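MODEL INPUT / OUTPUT PAIR
PAIR INDEX: 1
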Amino acid sequence: MKRFLATALACLAVFPLSTVLATVDDALSFAYEAATPYVKEGFTFREDAWGGDLGVGDQKAVASQLFKGNKYWFCLGTDLDNATLSVHIYDSKGNLVEKSNWQRGRFAGALVEPKRTGTYYAIVEVRQSPEERTHWALVYGYK
């Protein structure tokens, strides 16, 4: 009986982890899907990506080194149909610097053309979700 219980507990411990990882991977797929139109415009998307899960109203800051003279698209996605996400880009002084921003369904994006080289922050937020925690992923491309 002890052996059965230990095996059952081990399976329960591993199963949620594999489910969580698959969900973040799914969110990453949607983030790259959101980036597709910009790849067609000549933007190169990095393999670097950020992801995690947030509750409704929670925010996460992601820092990136951006260079003057380039354009950058930040694309955000989730695996949840009825979730609403947003992404906004700020400079190191806290000023909103995005040139364009959009949100459609499970996707969001922001364009920035930095006036100077430096550290910028993408602020990711879950605005609405049918779940307590929502998985998200963020990718960015440059041109």
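PAIR INDEX: 2
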Amino acid sequence: MSNLPLITLGKTVSKISKTLNRGNGSTWPGHIALKGNKNFIRDILSRSQTKIIIVAGTNGKTTTSALIRKGLEKNGKMVIQNASGANLLNGIASTLLLNTNAKGKLSQDFAIFEVDENALPLVLNQVSPDYLVLLNLFRDQLDRYGEINTIAQKWKDVIAKLPEKTTLILNADDPQIAYLGLSNVRARNEATKQSLDALYFSLNENNSSSKNQEAADSISCPKCGNKLIFETITFSHLGKWKCPSCGLIRPKTSLSSYPIYPLSGTYNKYNTIAAALVLKNLNFNEDIINKAFQEFKPAFGRQELIEFQGKKVQLFLSKNPTSFNQSFATIIELKAKSILLVLNDRIPDGRDISWIWDTDLSVLEDFKHIFVTGDRVYDMALRMKYELGIMNYEKKVETFEDLKEAIDASVNSVSENETLYLLPTYSAMLDARKILTGKKIL
């Protein structure tokens, strides 16, 4: 089937979806296109000069992609980007479809695609990116993804097949991510006499606190399997590492700090540095990059600040042990006093919620108000009870089976000059945001 009829049909479906307030039509058009032509993505890109940037990793994809886009647009480039959450093949196909001209071609300078960890091999079989940004690998949705070693091996295999034009942007502080560059460059040199350019970023604000390595997911050498030694740690398994057995060490980095961090939290410093490295490698003016970052507004659910009933609510997506721990540490730095935790176990969240027992809640008793809701409200409530003890739990914690009731009660508990901090899993974030804004995203 020709692509032009598929494009026309897809754009019509998207328009109807928006008109009926059924979301922004970010996946269905692509689903239709791929049903009609399984090579739709490859076909569209083969007729385009648009440069492709792919961003993947467990945490930080949306923020890093948004930072790169802001920097590109500030430098006068036309950019398209898939919607956060529409990070599978159908989301990418939709983005391409919805941004083609009357001849079915792209005219934009850049396309940024954030890609689901499990979908990355499928996407790279269709797309040959100019930049592949790999942020980190943490435990997330184990029932769906499996262990991170499994994902890393799939990534390694597909990266080895990428063309020479692809530049890898890799987190040197994550052993699994760093090794993807080290191992694949060597393999390609031996097999094809070609090599992928690999640029590494890190964070130079490491400290040696072992407490920061709670819920660490990757402490074994990705080459020989022996235990790694960490000289310094930022959090989880990120830091300056080396293997005493085989001699593998963290590679030298091109960028380890940046003068402007637009969002709070250590984890967002990594996102900022990764985005800055891409933009600097494209030879954009650093002053303009800085202005872009200064003007940056967070993507939905990622430290997004929403006014609701005259009060401020800030959303911190918290979908696995590491992201929860980092969100929690950040709101402690922001002197949070009221918190709403929303735990769901739907497909986008992962059915296995046992990860909540790997979270660090050691300062939970400092909060004035703790509200808990979600599909697994009582699992999270039990986690709170174990942390606080029965007496403190009964004083501080309120549970709600209904999300709207929980939001109303928690918002009413804060004064006009306070902020309610909301830590939801992914589907919970979408539901909460719909209540807070009156709009559905996907």
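PAIR 2 NOTE: The chain has 16 helices and 14 strands.
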